[in-house]
């Protein structure tokens, strides 16, 4: 049993074949996928998609859209979380966090939205799905203050020391397609060396394709696609199993248990 803890299956890249894509994931042994929202415009979409395909979802405002969200977006998020508080398929608040990589973003607005969303997560008793691109230390600074119940640092690419702090705060670390590139030395070293009970698997579909799907900028400009999807998760996991010298079935059991531990509603959903 494989669990994809982070995939944007409501993305327009899947409009032409969404049902078939989810069917391929199930055929590959991916039994559960967590669908994070990125802004108020897709709160309904991720919830409906999760219910239609027996998946799970999270609600939150992504830092990349912070500047374009309406001024009352936190009120809209609060209302949505309250309306869905008894929905067993709502497993987290996310995708939230900070992005200090993309130029031109309003950092103060990002931070204000992030802090407020952490407070909402604490009030709701929900874990969080974190975006931390070039922002691991500022994210950790806010987490130390927030008192949230844990969550997942999605697409983790920090240091071993930063990883230990996340783990001490009750977080798991998400690894996916980036780990399959031989030149991704830091990510591969972390995947091999961190405690096994701290790791979860993800695709971030349709993004972060593994090396066998990767296309160069020239290929993409020529119209070639590098779309990632959850059906790739077992092959991504095989690379982690090789790095850690584990049997694939043992890795599946461990990473599923880790996902259940950090997302308690997901565990209850899977047990139902």
UniProtKB/TrEMBL annotation:
The keyword Cell division does not apply. Signal peptide: none annotated. A divalent metal cation 2 binds at residues 131, 154. GO terms for molecular function: hydrolase activity, acting on ester bonds; metal ion binding. It holds the Pfam family TatD_DNase. A divalent metal cation 1 binds at residues 6, 8, 95, 204. This is DNAase. The lineage of its organism: Bacteria, Pseudomonadati, Pseudomonadota, Betaproteobacteria, Burkholderiales. The gene is tatD.
């Amino acid at each position: 049993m494989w669990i994809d803890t982070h995939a944007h299956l409501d993305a327009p890249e899947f409009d032409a074949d969404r049902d078939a894509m989810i069917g391929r994931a199930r055929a590959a042994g991916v039994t559960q996928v967590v669908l994070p929202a990125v802004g108020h415009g897709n709160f309904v979409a991720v919830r409906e998609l999760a219910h239609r395909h027996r998946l799970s979802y999270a609600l939150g405002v992504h830092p990349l859209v912070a500047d374009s969200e309406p001024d009352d977006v936190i009120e809209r998020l609060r209302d949505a979380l309250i309306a869905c508080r008894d929905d067993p398929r709502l497993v987290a608040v996310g995708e939230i966090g900070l992005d200090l990589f993309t130029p031109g973003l309003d950092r103060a607005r990002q931070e204000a939205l992030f802090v407020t969303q952490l407070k909402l997560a604490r009030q709701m008793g929900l874990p969080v799905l974190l975006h931390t691109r070039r922002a691991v230390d500022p994210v950790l600074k806010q987490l130390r203050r927030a008192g949230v119940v844990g969550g997942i640092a999605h697409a983790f690419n920090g240091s071993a020391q930063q990883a230990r702090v996340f783990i001490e705060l009750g977080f798991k670390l998400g690894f996916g397609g980036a780990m399959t590139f031989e030149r991704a030395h830091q990510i591969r070293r972390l995947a091999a060396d961190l405690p096994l009970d701290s790791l979860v698997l993800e695709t971030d579909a349709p993004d972060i394709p593994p090396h066998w799907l990767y296309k160069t900028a020239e290929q993409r400009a020529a119209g070639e696609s590098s779309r990632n999807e959850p059906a790739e998760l077992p092959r991504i996991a095989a690379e982690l199993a090789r790095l850690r010298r584990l049997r694939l079935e043992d890795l599946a059991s461990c990473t599923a248990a880790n996902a259940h531990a950090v997302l308690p509603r997901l565990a209850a959903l899977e047990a139902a």
